[in-house]
Each structure stands twice: as structure tokens, then as C-alpha cells.
């Protein structure tokens, strides 16, 4: 961590800050999400694109939520888990300084696709900074895969490196599941391989929100229903199918993290 903090400091000293609109950023409540990092697009199965949640959510009070490392078992557990760790004050100060140097408070949305003609099928890293004035989004295609011409991209890479390092530097605990998001698709069952169980959701499949053009459906649940479903899903795996009438379905389930917009699916 000290090495990354020193590297970030060196990058910050190497140039000047990008201009904002001149107004100080409005502060957030301590329990509000300050920074969200998601990966969108890329060459991946539809299931991964649909069920993928944020890589990181940094709260204003320094709590960092991130996806639990995949279990080394096959089939993997059905429920995607998240961990939470407290980021130290020195790292938080550097993160906030990088945010200011990039100029997040001065734009609503910024996108850099400069690497598109050199790299195919990469993900776009989408970083959302939130303050009292709303969301400020910086999206970069193939971040870290090519040397950037835009210094803001270099600063964003340093920011993400620091967040990634922070996730491995403390003593993480299981993040509580306050809300749950599920994605559902009809799939055929294999009598020899499938683990088929009764339909678990309170609504019928056709009552769930449709996600076009992907052909999946989605629902979100608050704490009470989420707790019941977590109990059911914890005993299932990614190979488990769920039967409603004569039709079987695959269900992807994970916590709905602070700042997420329900059933919205990134590209």
C-alpha cells in the first residue's frame, strides 16, 4: 500500500489539476456511496454481462465493498457475495486528491475511447464519483492496456490501483445483504446434470421486469424478502435450475449495492 501511495503522490506532483467549475463539492452523508467502479461490455457470456455487479463501492465513511473472490469449487455457489473493509485515512485522502486532480466535480460525464482502434473486445471501466451535486462519470475503454495520451486516464488508472490495493490491505468481513437483485432466464433442463428445485421467488416469472434485448427478467427485493431468499440461494449452486410449471429457469442473484439503480444492466 505504501508503494502505491508513493506512486500516486509522484503522479500527482507531475502535473496540475484539471479545472472544475470553480465551485466547492457538496459533501455527502457518511453512509452514502462516494465512488463506484464497474466494468461494462467486453467479450463475455451474456450471463456474466447480465449478472455482473460493481467491482467496488467506496462509501463516504471509508467502507469499501467489493466482490468476494470466486470459490475454487465447481459448480460455484449461486449467490455472489461481497466483502467490506475499512480504508485507512491516508489512502482516503489520496483517493480524494486523485478525484480532484482528475476534475470529477467539473463534469457530469466524460468518456475516453482512444484505445478502441488498438484493442478489441476489452471492457470499459466506468468510475462514478458522487457528491452533493450528483453523479460525475468517467468511462475509459481498455483502461491500463495501452499507454494513455490523456493524463486524466493515467490518474484514473492510479486511482483504481489504489482502490484495488485497499481491498486487499485490511481485514474484510462479509458485507450485509440489505437488498437483493435477481436475474432470470428460461433454460432447458438436462435430466442427467441439472439440480432442479421449486420456483423460489414471490412473483411468477412473467411478472418480473423484462430486460431487452437480452431476454432476461429482473427483480429487486428489500431486506425482509432478501433475507428469506438468501437462505434459499445459499444452499444452491450456479448449476441449480428452478422450476415453475413445466418450465425451468436459471437465476443469478447478488446483493444490490448502495447507489445501484435497481435492474439497470450495463453494456
Tell me briefly what this model is.
The protein is an alpha+beta fold and 267 residues long. Helices cover 23% and strands 30% of the residues. Helix 1 runs parallel beside helix 3, helix 1 (2-13) runs antiparallel to helix 4 (151-167) and helix 3 packs antiparallel against helix 4 (151-167).
Q: Could you explain the architecture of this structure?
A:
The protein folds into two domains: 172 residues, Mago nashi protein (2-Layer Sandwich); 79 residues, no CATH class. Strand 6 and strand 7 form a beta hairpin. It contains five helices and 14 strands. The two termini are 32 Å apart. 23% of the residues lie in helices and 30% in strands. It is of the alpha+beta class and 267 residues long. An eight-stranded mixed β-sheet has the order 5-7-6-1-2-3-4-8, with helices on one face. A six-stranded mixed β-sheet has the order 10-13-14-9-12-11.
Amino acid at each position: 500500500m505504501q508503494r502505491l501511495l508513493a506512486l500516486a503522490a509522484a503522479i500527482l506532483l507531475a502535473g496540475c489539476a484539471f479545472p472544475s467549475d470553480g465551485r466547492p463539492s457538496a459533501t455527502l452523508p457518511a453512509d452514502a456511496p462516494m465512488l463506484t467502479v464497474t466494468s461494462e461490455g467486453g467479450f463475455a457470456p451474456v450471463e456474466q454481462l447480465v449478472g455482473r455487479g460493481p467491482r467496488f463501492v467506496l462509501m463516504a465513511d471509508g467502507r469499501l465493498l467489493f466482490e468476494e473472490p470466486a470459490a475454487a469449487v465447481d459448480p460455484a455457489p449461486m449467490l455472489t457475495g461481497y466483502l467490506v473493509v475499512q480504508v485507512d485515512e491516508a489512502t482516503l485522502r489520496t483517493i480524494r486528491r486523485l478525484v480532484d486532480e482528475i476534475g470529477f466535480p467539473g463534469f457530469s460525464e466524460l468518456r475516453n475511447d482512444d484505445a478502441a482502434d488498438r484493442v478489441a473486445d476489452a471492457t470499459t471501466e466506468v468510475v462514478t464519483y458522487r457528491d452533493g451535486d450528483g453523479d460525475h462519470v468517467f468511462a475509459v475503454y481498455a483502461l491500463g492496456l495501452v499507454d494513455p495520451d490523456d493524463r486524466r486516464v493515467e490518474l484514473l488508472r492510479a486511482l483504481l490501483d489504489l482502490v484495488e490495493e485497499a481491498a486487499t490491505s485490511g481485514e474484510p468481513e462479509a458485507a450485509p445483504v440489505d437488498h437483493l437483485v435477481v436475474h432470470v432466464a428460461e433454460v432447458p433442463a438436462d435430466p442427467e446434470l441439472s439440480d432442479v428445485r421449486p420456483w423460489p421467488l414471490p412473483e411468477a416469472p412473467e411478472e418480473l421486469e423484462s430486460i431487452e434485448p437480452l431476454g432476461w427478467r429482473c427483480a429487486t427485493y428489500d431486506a425482509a424478502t432478501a433475507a428469506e431468499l438468501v437462505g434459499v440461494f445459499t444452499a444452491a449452486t450456479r448449476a441449480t435450475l428452478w422450476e415453475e410449471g413445466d418450465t425451468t429457469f436459471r437465476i443469478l442473484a447478488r446483493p444490490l449495492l448502495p447507489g445501484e439503480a435497481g435492474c439497470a444492466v450495463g453494456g
